[in-house]
Amino acid sequence: MADLNASKTKVTFWLLALALVFIYVRPYELIPILEKLKVAKIALLAALFFSFIESYKRGVVLKERGFRLLFYLQLLAVVLMPFAIWTGKAMDFWLESYVKIFALFYLIVVALEDGRKVDTVLRLIFVCCALVAGRVVLAFLTGNIIYDYDGTRRVMGISILSSTDPNDMALAIAMSLPIGMYFFYTVKGLLAKSFYLGLALICIAAILYSGSRGGYLGLLTGATVFFFMVYRTKKLRLAGFALLGLMALPFVPGDYQARFTSIFDSENYVYSEAGRLGIWKRGLSTVIREPQGVGISNFALTEGERKKEKGYQGKWHVAHNSYLQVAVELGVAGFILYSLFLYTGFKELGRIIRMSDEAGDARRRFCATALTASLVAFCISSFFLSQAYYWNHYIFIGVIIALKNVMTAEKTAREAIA
What we know:
This protein has helices spanning 10-25, 33-37, 39-54, 58-63, 65-79, 87-111, 115-141, 166-186, 190-210, 213-230, 235-248, 254-261, 276-289, 299-309, 322-359, 362-381, 391-417; strands at 146-147, 153-154. It contains 17 helices and two strands. The chain is an all-alpha fold.
């Protein structure tokens, strides 16, 4: 079926695409003068301006459950600012990051009004992540690495989505991999398939060199969900992919094998009282003592207070768990809203899959499968990472809602014709 309303947000869409490129790739490190131009911020503001001129969907967006839930999270973050441990830190974080994520989410839902635009944004995300992955691989090959406390070689300092943390970078790339596989399966021609497969291999290498356990977990989870959904009735082929993965394991350098398997080692430092287990226990005690929340971006401060009360010294840590991060900072109400927001993403994916099956649209089903794998990868990995206010899942859920709207409009048009 032809795409509907394909040009109604043309300027908004291309400004959004420009903003996404600069948010993902962050070329400021390579071309410093671009940072002074504030390209991403200007593109976002201009896209918002044109969205009010071009879009016919503003009223529809306001009715979206995902949009409303994210708006309530934004409102809660603002309401809690005067009561935060450090009000200035909460306000700065909201202004510099979280409200921008909200604006980007809105633009994605508004501007992706047909299937071609959805595919263009997904392709853009994957290629941008692959470009960052290429920088990671190059850094590793040229010796620009550090050695972590357990001796693992790690590439650090390469920015993606406003962060230079290798854990953030690894999860962003891991979430993009199912998207790459979606295009690999649906494009035609050996050259096109080789292109996407090559980028996927670069992404896998970058996740490996990041030394991020959360990234490894995201990669494994995303791949498992994707192939299980694709080959749900072809168990032998699925088993073949699993066997290939196991056969590749011996070729992974020993330090990275040990790094990954330490995820499941309960004796590892990260699960000790001095590590993440202790952080999680102290975080839960804060939720019980202050169920209203301590303010966005204030977890490390309250963690420091709890450590002092127990007579501990040393670095004040982040949550290393997105769900606990939200519960501590935005309270029980914020945790419920955040959980409902993630659930909305999966609920909309279910609708997309049902509509794809009804229409016999294999390509859209592949797309929904990839987005499901990406979102599951996030939900599992973010249990070990502080990702609650990071760009990743907000961008993906925005795309999911946009795709659901596209398919709903196409279904309505088919029914009208029939």
